[in-house]
Amino acid sequence: MNDIDAWVWWLVGAAALGIPLVVTAMPEFGMLALGAVAAAVASGLGGDIVVQVLVFAVVSVALIAVVRPIAARHGTQRPQLVTGIDALKGRQAVVLERVDGAGGRIKLAGEVWSARALDVDRTYEAGQEVDVVDIEGATAIVM
């Protein structure tokens, strides 16, 4: 065991930290693995064991302190590109057949949709433009 250089042990440790990273999908293990790689570099450059452990600790803690908040912030952001029915909300449509609280038809994004008025007392006549506020199943809710 004395024949193996310390940098090899650090790389073995980095690989060992990569296994739970893949199994658990916890990015912290990857950051610790990068700290072990940095310690291997420090060992390869001739640093003693104290320097190696300090490099491992500093790099690992710095990555966790900097990368985790950024990753958490990106995980809670809504996607910039909306698709599907979410892309239809807020768009304008043209009434094809009278729309009231019971139903009707509109032309939305080039397609004919069933629709009903958000306010059940409100009626929209053919030719009027309406705003789509929600989609419930295959029915557009308009106002």
Can you give a write-up of this model?
The chain is an alpha+beta fold and 143 residues long. The protein is built from four helices and five strands. The protein has helices at residues 6-24, 27-44, 49-76, 85-88, and strands spanning 92-97, 105-108, 111-117, 129-136, 139-142. A five-stranded mixed β-barrel has the order 1-2-3-5-4. Helix 1 runs antiparallel to helix 2 and helix 2 runs antiparallel to helix 3. The longest helix is centred in the middle third of the chain and has 28 residues, at 49-76. It starts with 5 loop residues before the first helix and ends with a strand. The model has no long low-confidence stretch (mean pLDDT 90).
Sheet with most strands: strand arrangement: 1-2-3-5-4
Shape: rod-shaped
Q: Kindly state the percentage of residues in helix.
A: 40-55%
What is the count of DSSP helices, taking H or I runs of 4+ residues? 4
- Provide the residue-averaged pLDDT: 90
* Number of E strands: 5
Low-confidence stretches: none
Structural class: alpha+beta
Q: Main sheet?
A: 5 strands, mixed, barrel
Strand content: 15-25%
- The helix/strand series, from N terminus to C terminus, equals HHHHEEEEE
Radius of gyration, CA atoms, in whole angstroms: 30 Å
Compute the separation of the termini in Å: 77 Å
